[in-house]
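Q: I'm writing up a methods section and want to include an example of the input and output format. Could you take the sequence below and give the corresponding predicted structure tokens, formatted cleanly so I can copy it straight into the document?
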Amino acid sequence: MDFLEGALLGSLWCDSDYENERHRGVTLIFSLLFWVVGVHLTIKANRGDLASVVAMPILWLVILIVFMIVSPLLNFLYYDQEFPLRATILLFQLVKYISVFMFLYSLIVPKLILPKDDNLQEAAMQSLNRFAEIFFDNSGLSSSASGLVTTVILLLFAALVAIGVVVIVIVFLPPVLMKIIKFLQRGIDIIFLRSTVRWRRTYRTKHPFKMFNPTEPTQGNSMASDQKT
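A: Here is the clean output for your methods example:
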């Protein structure tokens, strides 16, 4: 539960040590899941049975923005609730992060629909050969055997570099994107905390904590912030 709270609510709203711990295994699994879903949606798009809602970036962007704006209020109220409502708030946060990737899918997947051509493999080989010819013509290499060997080596090197770049993108794109969203969400949370000091004081006077609660944020920081205000 601490892991979910740290991952979904953020360090401002919980007392878990999530931010200071390494989660390499989780990051790899998360990246793998992201790309598996992306490949699955791409296959469905090429089969023509992709749900229309997947290709609606405006919808997912609106959901993301609305959820990010509402998140601070729900996080503030999180520890006041019983388990069912807490689980609902965590689910809300999960949907918010899912909408980030659905927005990305909605932009990319429709553009990955391949032409329905029986000679697709032949066309791909022709494109590859054409690329090799252009590279050979512009490289200044001679048509001798040594020139051909050098061209092949350079093409293989370029292919290895491309594969390396693809691997790096596959591994790091999802977590980097998540960090960007969390950074933006943290900014919204701070704006909420600074603009609702009086309301939160009034609310806490009427609704005191029933148990230890780390919110506002991490309790000590929030109390100090309120006193300064």
